[in-house]
Amino acid sequence: MTDSDTAARQPVRLTISARHRQPPPVALLDWIQRNPRYRPVVRQAGGGGGRPGFTDAVIIAVLAQGLLPGLFNLLQSWVDQQRTEASVRIQAGDTEVELQVSGRTDSARLLAQATEALRAAREPGPDAAD
Fold first, then answer.
1. Among the listed ranges 77-81, 90-94, 97-101, which one has the minimum average pLDDT value?
2. DSSP state, 46?
3. For the whole model, what pTM was predicted?
4. Which residues, in sequence order, are CB contacts of 75 under 8 Å at separation 6+?
């Protein structure tokens, strides 16, 4: 098994938060869960008692990195149809990055940004040799 195969199986925690002025005709969670690959691993964040600022629009997912391309394509298609924006926080190990998704964001570019962030999270920092 190669390093890229192993990386594709490593779990990633995503928090997706949609920002919109009015409720969309199709909720993001419903949109993503139409695909059976994501239905068991993508859920709505528990209401109440969560992190400050979280609303019912927040979605949590823990999935293999290999599933990110399809999930980002679904997210981009939803953003395009709803004419809204979304924020995706990706956590791998101790590192967390946030990516903004708008109607102009290309899902391939989003995947490249996520992959680079995940690669940086896996690589030891300059202080690790000390």
1. 90-94
2. P
3. 0.70
4. 16, 28, 32, 86, 88, 101, 107, 110
